[in-house]
Design goal:
single chain, five-stranded antiparallel β-sheet, two-stranded antiparallel sheet
Length: about 60
């Protein structure tokens, strides 16, 4: 799941099924139609075996 949070508190999400390989977990392209402004993005995953998430990444959409 990709979660985008704006500086004013709006939250948008995109989800996709992921496929595991021995070296990586691939979910393909996740798209979020975000309005212009500053956003924090976090990519996360969950399975029956484990969960994890990225550190937040700050982005500015023009």
């Amino acid at each position: 799941m990709l979660t985008a949070t704006s500086t004013d508190g709006r939250v948008l999400e995109a989800q996709a099924a992921a496929h595991a390989t021995p070296a990586a977990l691939n979910c393909g392209i996740l798209r979020i139609a975000a309005a212009p402004g500053d956003w924090s993005l976090v990519l996360s995953f969950s399975s029956s075996a484990s969960t994890g998430s990225s550190e937040p990444v700050a982005v500015r959409r023009s």
